[in-house]
Amino acid sequence: MSNILEIKGLTVEYKMPEGVIKALDRIDLFMKRGDVLAVVGESGSGKSTLAYSITRLLPKNAHIVEGSIVFYTKNESIDLIRLSEEDIRRVRGNRIGMVFQDPMTYLNPVMKISDQIIEGLMVHRKISKREAEMRALELLKKLKIPNPEYVAKSYPHQLSGGMKQRVIIAMAIANEPDLLIADEPTSALDITIQAEILELFKELQKEYGLSIMIITHDLGVAARIADKIAVMYAGRIVEIGNIKDVFEDPLHPYTQGLLGSILTIGEHKIEKGFLLKGSPPNMLNLPKGCRFHPRCPYVIKEKCIYEEPPLIRVKEKDRWVSCWLYKGENT
Fold first, then answer.
1. Residue 44, CB half-sphere, CA atoms under 13 Å: how many?
2. Residues 65-87: pLDDT tens digits?
3. d(CA 166, CA 107)
4. What per-residue string of b and e applies to 102-130 under the rule 16 or more CB within 10 Å gives b?
5. In sequence order, what DSSP letters do the residues of 80-102 get, joined into one string?
């Protein structure tokens, strides 16, 4: 299967009153067409910054220092970083859809739901308002929204959190994108609604052949929906692999720590791990060498505290890990 996304050497910095934070540091990541990739890590690891870099929705105090983000449509390859603002708007909401953590941040409180879906359709598809109205209603039905005609005429404040999230998903898939990016899409919902939303993602992925990148701190969410997983720590990717392989045999000590307090997640049994102690580093004052070494029970003092490990491929498992405990091929 061909790649839909290739990220190379991506570095993103935030200018803060206290100094400069390197939120992403030379990130390398690729994603196969049709895959569901979960990007996981603790708060502040850089996973949301990754999502907003791809969609070019970074806040004003953030900027991409270097690197490339190449997005492959069915007809061409596009370096998203080098697109003009006008061109990225054509891609965003059309070829790339986005589902946000807080729907009310992105739903217009004074516009009816149908009008918000219709607006995106008419901008990107150049269809008549009547056709857009029919498509909007069709989407609400597809997302299993009860009484879709009523919801279409409603305002956001009249809907529950789960319904608002379904509306955001409808807006994200309205133009049948190639890639859907979901940033913590279930974190504000109760557990029953979470399960419904995740099942909906799976159904949409199968129906449309969507590639989905889901950003989450919840390993249960990753286990339920993802094919592959990328684990982030302090602005770096520390492990990549198939979800089953990573859950059953985590290689990086940080991944082992994340999984160590959990015996099973869904169908995945955790074979090894430890209880993760300590806190992520201060991003304004990162430790030298491996960023995880102050919390790592396997630290090699002669190596880990002085040299940052590269992301290497472990050939026999088709896995990638950034740790001096392993030998393999550099990416």
1. 9
2. 999 999 998 888 999 999 999 99
3. 12
4. ebeebbeeeebbbbbbbbbbeebeeeeee
5. GGGS-HHHHHHHBTTTEEEE-S-
CA distance 265 to 274: 16
For residue 64, the cross-strand partners are 12
313: tokens are 């491929």
Domains of the chain: 3-95+175-330 (3.40.50.300)
β-pair type (211-216, 36-40): parallel
Q: Are 258 and 276 in contact (CB under 8 A)?
A: yes
Q: What is the pLDDT of residues 193-232, one digit of tens each?
A: 888 889 999 998 998 889 999 999 988 899 999 999 999 9
- Helices and strands of the chain, counted as H and E runs: 11, 15
Please answer whether residues 322 and 238 qualify as being in contact, where contact means their C-beta atoms are separated by less than 8 angstroms: yes
- Tell me the C-alpha distance between 68 and 277, whole Å: 35
Structure tokens at 230: 């990328």
